[in-house]
Write a structure and sequence with these properties.
Strand order of the largest sheet: 3-4-2-1-5-6
Largest sheet: 6 strands, mixed
Shape: globular
Amino acid sequence: VIGVVLFAVMVVWSRGRSLLREYYVSRQVSYAELRQTLTQKPPTRLPGLSIYLASNQDIAPPILLMQLQRFRGLSEEILFLSVVVESVPEVEEVERVQVEVVDEGFYRVVARFGFMEIPAVSAVLQRAARQLPLRNSLKEATYFVGRETFLGTSHGRMSALEEQFFAFLSRNSTDITRVFDLPSNQVMELGTRLDL
């Protein structure tokens, strides 16, 4: 019985994550497309530094696109942070941080950790900040994190019961702000409601 329950949990989690990935892939925008959009229709730029977690180094984070679409404004400085977990226990310190100036006011930081390491994002960002021409302090930065709410209806590709179970699993998964030890008083969550 326990084996059947664990198997059901793994199947629902895998299917839900797969459908969620498909949802975001169908709406993805490359950095080149984002740059073109920002050039054609420059948004209002607000003082400050925004940090967006970016799971894919080549694609603009969906949370940034949502913010741009809904608020029509962006911070004057934007930092995209990608955390990569390598297939080695520990990553050498010289290979830990990669920084890049993407465009004026846009920066990319790739942090690499071994699978046995705790991702110390704050230390990586402090190290990256020393290498970047940031005008704003990390202490004043806002970390934007996405949150999905699953509706659990029968209108999507998952059955209502299956999606409600996936929603339960998702709500009880480890919060990304805890995993990366982000300063909780600087985190802003923007949510989207989905029917998988």
